[in-house]
Specification:
about 575 residues; Immunoglobulin-like; mainly beta; 6-stranded antiparallel β-sheet; 8-stranded antiparallel β-sheet; about 55% strand; 50 strands
């Protein structure tokens, strides 16, 4: 027995030489992956929820689970090995619905999960035992710790008379646990026998909570906006020992949750993005603000391997991506949203920041650093959009509806290339969870509506739901070799030499198929075109003004942009 919905795992390649893209896995679990978590051993947890029967085993085996009622969602965490094979699963069931917002693993292999639920929740994922939590009214927040064998160590809920939730969970080197989320009115934040009640200024309040390794209450801090909105969506522990919490707010806000004051106000009541920096004792250190003239909403924050902060989100209007005294203003292309991405030092200094978009709605869902140090951004776009936010040009077209894109930058923020998923007339593709794996590959999940082409190369891999009005969940895997350029079957990356050059630029192309390359100047203006066949081509650039130029090649949904200098 199989579910009617299918999940597809497509393997493509970012590399310096041509490689086939024929490794395609058809995974038969028909629920959308809202998050993907990478494990050190190369495994991955696929996280989502479902209503009704679902086969958790995407392979030849069968492991069917169902929910207890029409409004009763079950949250799942399905573990896959490096080859996409089923390893096992964990699930959380509630009488009125449950969702998983975040999942974190510490160095000892303990697993921490946060989210929200309503009704009665069995927080013990084991089949032969249960540990029940009951919400007070509406949604309550829950958080739990599982041991290396995925056994329940502890689990708690917090909540009041309205909707409350936990959006992120993480740990420090001592095993202490940090949780952030939103709450309404009055909530007791001590999940144990004690009481630590906080009353917010209305329905828009956010918190940062610390527990010890045994789940005992340590401290809680709150921020609130009386008439507007505030939210913390992500908390991370930096190697320097400080906490960084990502969020956004509208109106007037005191960044310092204790006796001090750090008042900030947003213009015209539009939202600005912020990063709060705190000690592990709950003391306020600093805040880094990304200010704009309109909507600024962050979507993700992760640590780079050198300790820098990687951020992404959506914006409208203009946005100063530099939280310091300098200004680096990004301006949305149209009147709708654009996607943005940035790299900051641990002290909030801007390393680089970019924005992409067209006249319609564009966004970035996630940002991540791969095993080669490159920065990858998962997003979506509509219409014709230049996916190269630097001086080059990489035009893609998503027809009438959203398509998924994966942008890759080097550590310095230089654009390396982009992949386009979901092309097709009357097709729409969304993306959600993603993770950078230890082998350098990228996994991301989403769903397609209509006949979507999920092959980012010259081939075609159509995926669509079982009916004309249903979505098709999918998972894509992108294997990366860490070198500049994007190659697919029968596509090769040209090499340029000498670089820099004064008179002749030699372009060596090893592809079997003829392609057309465009030479663009630093402002993206077309200088000339070159037809490339297999072999070495000499291009006379003696008369070009000195400066940076870009060799731009594109095949199907694949683009490559390479920079050379004219002296």
């Amino acid at each position: 027995m199989r579910n009617t919905l299918l999940s597809l795992l497509v393997t493509s390649t970012i590399a310096g030489t041509a490689q086939p893209i024929g490794n395609e896995w058809l995974l038969r679990f028909g629920a959308e992956a809202t998050r993907i978590v990478a494990l050190p051993d190369g495994h991955a947890f696929i996280i989502g929820r479902h209503n009704g029967p679902l086969d958790y085993d995407p392979g030849e085996g069968e492991n069917i689970h169902t929910t207890s009622g029409i409004s009763s969602y079950t949250a799942f965490m399905i573990e896959l090995d490096a080859d996409g094979g089923y390893v096992g699963d964990l699930r959380l069931s509630s009488t009125a619905g449950v969702g998983i917002s975040h999942c974190h693993f510490d160095a000892e292999g303990n697993m921490y999960v946060s989210g929200s639920f309503s009704g009665t929740l069995d927080i013990d994922p084991a089949d032969d035992s249960e540990f029940l939590l009951t919400s007070t009214n509406g949604n309550d927040a829950y958080f739990m710790k599982l041991g290396p064998a995925r056994e329940l160590v502890w689990g708690y809920r917090i909540g009041g008379t309205n909707s409350d939730g936990a959006s992120s969970i993480t740990t420090d080197a001592d095993g202490d646990v940090y949780i952030c989320g939103n709450y309404s009115f009055t909530v007791d934040f001590d999940p144990g026998p004690g009481t630590e009640s906080l009353t917010g200024g209305g329905q828009s309040n956010t918190y940062l909570l610390k527990l010890d390794a045994n789940g005992a209450f340590q401290w809680v801090r709150k921020w609130h906006s009386q008439f507007f909105f505030i939210s913390l969506s992500r908390v991370i522990v930096h190697p320097n020992g400080d906490l960084y919490a990502l969020g956004y707010w509208t109106g007037e806000l005191d960044f310092d949750p204790e006796a001090g004051e750090a008042i900030h106000d947003t213009p015209d009541n539009y939202s600005d993005a912020m990063i709060l920096r705190m000690t592990t004792d709950g003391s306020y250190l600093d805040a880094y603000r990304l200010q704009g003239t309109d909507l600024q909403t962050p979507s993700s924050m992760v640590l780079a391997s050198n300790g820098d902060l990687l951020l992404s989100g959506t914006m409208r209007g203009s946005m100063d991506i530099d939280p310091g005294e300098g200004q680096t203003v990004l301006t949305a292309t149209g009147t709708s949203t654009d996607g943005w991405m940035a790299r900051l030092t641990q002290n909030g200094e801007l390393v680089w920041g970019h924005q992409f978009g067209g006249p319609d709605t564009d966004q970035v869902f996630n940002i991540m650093e791969d095993a080669f140090g490159n920065i990858n951004c998962l997003g979506s776009f509509i219409g014709e959009v230049d996916l190269d936010p630097t001086a080059g040009v990489a035009l893609f077209n998503a027809d009438l509806f959203w398509d998924v894109c994966l942008l890759t930058f080097d550590p310095a923020g230089d654009f390396l290339g982009a992949l386009h998923y979901g092309a097709g007339e009357d097709a729409q593709t969304d993306a959600n969870g993603s993770a950078a794996m230890t082998d350098g590959s990228i996994l991301f999940g989403g769903r397609g509506f209509g006949p979507c082409d999920l092959d980012p190369g010259p081939g075609v891999e159509i995926v669509q739901g079982p009916t004309s009005s249903s979505y098709q969940p999918f998972i894509c895997r992108v294997d990366q070799a860490g070198t500049v350029g994007i190659s697919m079957q029968d596509v090769s990356v040209p090499t340029l030499h000498p670089n820099p050059t004064r008179e002749q630029l030699y372009i060596t192309y090893e592809g079997e198929q003829t392609t057309v390359a465009r030479i663009l100047d630093a402002n993206g203006r077309l200088v000339t075109t070159v037809t490339l066949r297999k072999g070495t081509h000499a291009l006379n650039v003696q008369d070009l003004p000195s400066g940076a130029y870009y060799l731009h090649t594109q095949d199907a949904h694949v683009t490559r942009t390479q920079r050379f200098m004219k002296q």
